[in-house]
């Protein structure tokens, strides 16, 4: 080829560790604690097949034609119902349908980030968000968290430090509920504090909430959006409550920002897949979707328990991990001095795969941590996977 | 809301005239010569509904789960078959599935355009491409065309002029076959010349070819990609040969560029809709898709003829238009001195809508032109639409 001259931002798009281990996870005999795939076994396959046929039979060519870029009216209504389950009453003019919440984040980031800006995010944060911010040539300042999520004093310190450096802060990106990868959840008092700090400092909050309905307890949690709908952009998704393959998500934002996000989305994809939007709508309208979510959540809770028990049993003394009250993930931290560099290789050799914690840090730190997903594998395989992982850690320690 | 500070690029995302008239086109009694929607009436609805149910019944939860970001193997094979119909044998490692060819263009442009670069394109060019280039803060230099497409000498002059200005040229974007909006097709000798000029000048060609299979004649046309697969990126789509609502398209590129485009696509949407990909695959594998395309093309040819006859009959003396040999569009140029400014309003008042030619020019020029689409309305409504349009032009001229 004629040597291609890439744009300067091109170097910022690097292969993600999550997607790389996706291929490894497909190998025969491999146990995957890596990808954040939901368990879809509980979905009524024939019923979904019938919904899928019905949407073309009933809607005809409308299901296959170009449609309005904001999203289909019925899909927006279905999203409003999901938002009600999250405790939010959202007007249709605030809702933009997207190709997964990934594109919702991409659109908002495209509108708000100039090169050289510094996005705030949790330490650690969602690897797909780091990909978006990197592609827009932003820096990322990651705010320390504990079991109760972002530490407000640390947030204030980080804001002051970034501003002292001369960099602009376009927004705080956060997964406050059942965080990815941490599994941590922002406590109610800290929700008040984080919302208040950001409002005071004039920093928009982008609240990414794909796991909010997958709670293992009955503790009520109020979205950040509900606390300050004029300063919080909410990102939602059907990926974890129904199907990630559809690639249907949404954002909720003040009307002007929503309308601008639509323009970015039109330039990227024109609009979200119509069969995907219709199938998501029918899932909400024509099935007992809350019952499906409730049953899935029961499955995830059992798996969380199985993973925790296996970690207790198989990991070396001094290993620690978060105990999530919902969602898909925990982060495991190895004891001080444990060997980390070839651990993923050793684990893969032992036929278990996970995502290294360094993937969730913009600076590649935290090599002593691992994200383990309990969403996809059944309980016995989770236990076996952690046994293999424990063996890999111990065998490396002996060699070291 | 806290006053949002938008990024500098945000101002470059402006409402598209094509999408604005989309809403107007929905009004009762309106005849739309505006949108580039394919005619889907010929699609066998029950058969497509059955394919849609079957893909979930047969593939089960795989049809609803996360899948590899390059695209499903079966979809890539189906795309290889469509490319063979275009005369191109493409290896799988060169094919990237995208959410419509819009995202293919967005991904390539993201990798190749730095702010301040100048993209080359036809005058006039696809409005959705202008949206992509604008969002990346590029300038656009539009190269004069005639009935045989890009004028090679004008291309060379434009390259020299842009370079003399100090701006870098990342690529030439072109719809060489049944162009949007022009309807013009690059002649075979000019294909050789354009490919040769760009190779010599080290300028990548991005060949957007959604209409290539919709030819009204039997003239063989070779893609630019087939002439120089190392310097041409090919953009393809199921939107015009099957269904735009699926949002499934692709790019064909040298393997390294393909792999980098995948990273941009992962950051934007993770991957294209799985039900959409599977339905496109089944359309190719399980139906006589070439026969569907042949029959649709017959319909479009009849509509082209009806539109041309109506233009001949109803438009004022001195009006000119292109005569496309395939695709969806013609560009109509009003006689010198004809009033243009409120013409769209007058047309809408007469219940016919089109896209002003200025939408297809980065500088908003060519207010004396209109893009008319004959793809969507049946022949009698095309004739009536042009009659209304002719009346609107004449009534404005009398008032002026």
Offer a few descriptive terms.
alpha/beta, 14 strands, transaminase activity (chains A, B), 43% helix, Aspartate Aminotransferase, domain 1, Aspartate Aminotransferase, domain 2, PyrdxlP-dep_Trfase_small (chains A, B), eight-stranded mixed β-sheet, 14% strand, four-stranded antiparallel β-sheet, 400 residues, homodimer, aminotransferase (chains A, B), pyridoxal phosphate (chains A, B), transferase (chains A, B), 2 domains
What does this structure look like?
The structure is a homodimer of 400-residue chains. Chain A is α/β, with parallel strands linked by helices and 400 residues long. Chain A folds into two domains: 8-43 and 291-399, Aspartate Aminotransferase, domain 1 (Alpha-Beta Complex); 46-286, 3-Layer(aba) Sandwich (Aspartate Aminotransferase, domain 2), CATH 3.40.640. In chain A, 43% of the residues lie in helices and 14% in strands. The first copy, chain A, is built from 13 helices and 14 strands. In chain A, strands 2-9-8-7-6-3-4-5 form an eight-stranded mixed β-sheet, with helices on both faces. Chain A has a four-stranded antiparallel β-sheet with strand order 10-11-14-13. Chain A has a two-stranded parallel ribbon with strand order 1-12. In chain A, helix 2 crosses helix 10 (274-286), helix 3 packs across helix 10 (274-286) and helix 4 (100-112) packs parallel to helix 5 (127-135). The longest helix of chain A is centred in the C-terminal third of the chain and has 26 residues, at 289-314. Chain A is globular and about 65 Å long. The model of chain A has no long low-confidence stretch (mean pLDDT 95). Chains A, B: Keywords: Aminotransferase, Pyridoxal phosphate, Transferase. Chains A, B: InterPro entries: Aminotransferase_I/II_large (IPR004839), Class-I_PLP-dep_aminotransf (IPR050859), PyrdxlP-dep_Trfase (IPR015424), PyrdxlP-dep_Trfase_major (IPR015421), PyrdxlP-dep_Trfase_small (IPR015422). Chains A, B: Its cofactor is pyridoxal 5'-phosphate. Chains A, B: Residues 30-374 form the Aminotransferase class I/classII large domain. Chains A, B: One of its GO terms (molecular function) is transaminase activity.
